[in-house]
Amino acid sequence: GDCVITVQLTEEDQVEDDVVFYLIFTGSTVQHCTSTRKINPGSLETIAPGHDCCETVKVALCASKEGHPVLVVAEESFQFIQDEAYDAAQFLATCAGNQQALNFTRFLDRSRPPAADVEFLDEKVALAFRHLKLPPGWNVLGADQSLNENSPRETLMHFAARLGLLRLTWFLLQQPGGRGALSIHNTEGATPVSLALERGYLKLHQLLTE
What we know:
Helix content is 34%, strand content 21%. The protein is of the alpha+beta class. It is elongated, with a radius of gyration of 22 Å.
């Protein structure tokens, strides 16, 4: 999702200005409808929607004009692929509560990736997370809810706060266990809130304290 798609119209499809074009993406379980922007008489532009799985979907270009029936102008196939961001989101979702895996993710902190790479990682992983099929009952703190909230441990929220992943943090806050994770200390005594402040991520710290 979120990539730019350009549609080239044939001469016979370059109709009056009051015709509205939109695209319908039909997958195995989900259907999306996106508006388009006319770049010039022969070209349209839209943003690909995020999808729930990696598959080839059918895309229909439709034309709409007031007082007329909707017309399907053309059909084509479009493939949603599995990329590194999707793999990373799946890994993080699977390792929620897994201390060995969460401690492994801390090598990213030691490597200190450039800010531009972190911004890209945040944007793409958060997008992938929003469209993952999370299992029923999935929780930011993992499957074992018998753990006392006072037990020192690493959480997905620590991971996001340590790297300054604002979008991913926002997503996690809205999931079960997200708010509870804010008060959990890791083995070094740090909470996600204190990590954000320590690293100078002021917007992130403001989000977590509000």
